[in-house]
Structures are given as C-alpha cells and as structure tokens.
Amino acid sequence: MAKKASDHFKGIPDLPDDPRAKKSRPKIMAVVDEDNCTGCQACVPFCPVDCIEVMESIIEIDDGICIDCDLCVFICPIDVLSSVATATI
Ligand code: SF4
Ligand code: SF4
Q1: Which one, of 7, 5, 16, 19, lies nearest residue 50 by Cα?
Q2: Mean pLDDT in runs of 10 for the chain (89 residues)?
Q3: What is the pTM of this model?
Q4: Residue ID of nearest Cα to ligand 1 atom 5
Q5: Which of 24, 33, 62, 67 lies in disulfide reach of 80, CB 3.0 to 4.6 Å?
Q6: Distance between CA atoms of 88 and 82, rounded to whole angstroms?
Q7: Residue having the nearest C-alpha atom to atom 2 of ligand 1
Q8: How are beta strands 52-54 and 59-61 bridged, if at all?
Q9: Domains defined along the chain, listed by start
C-alpha cells in the first residue's frame, strides 16, 4: 500500500497539563517555617516561576515548580525561608 505524504509527518505531542511542572523534585528547594511565617506575602511577587501560594495566613511552596533560585529566601524580612535539601524533608 502506497504511503501518503501525511504518513511522514509526526503528530504534535500532547502538552502536559502544567508546562511549568517538572518531572522530578529539585535537590534543593525553599522551605518556609510555618510556625513563624506572618503571611505578609512580601516574597510572593519575587518568585520567578510563581510557585508561592498564599494560604490563610502563611505561604506554601510548590516543590514541583520551585527552581531553588533563593530569591524568596533573600527577600523574607524575618528570615523564615531557608534553602533545604529535599532528601531531608
Ligand atoms: S526559591 Fe525561587 S522558585 Fe523557589 S519559591 Fe523561592 S523564589 Fe520561588
Ligand atoms: S516574606 Fe517571609 S514572612 Fe512574609 S509571607 Fe513570605 S515567608 Fe512568610
């Protein structure tokens, strides 16, 4: 059977639901001390990948997206964010 021209083109692969999501956790990521975070949200606009979610009065970091750039760690005015090896958490 003769092949059609369209047989030679590959289909466009399906896009993941969230293109920013990584397949594996980073080796190091930012972690918040939930007991002491004031929920001031000063760190939120500085995250380049928008992975800091504001919960009721604290923040939560999505480890599937965090790229461990440490920007939020430097920004937090009360030093409740730290960079931690994910194997330890
Ligand atoms: S370390 Fe960087 S990517 Fe991770 S939450 Fe902080 S600002 Fe966002
Ligand atoms: S800047 Fe610090 S205290 Fe403010 S929301 Fe972020 S982690 Fe919490």
Answers
A1: 19
A2: 68 68 73 94 94 91 87 95 83
A3: 0.73
A4: 66
A5: 33
A6: 13
A7: 69
A8: antiparallel
A9: 24-88 (3.30.70.20)
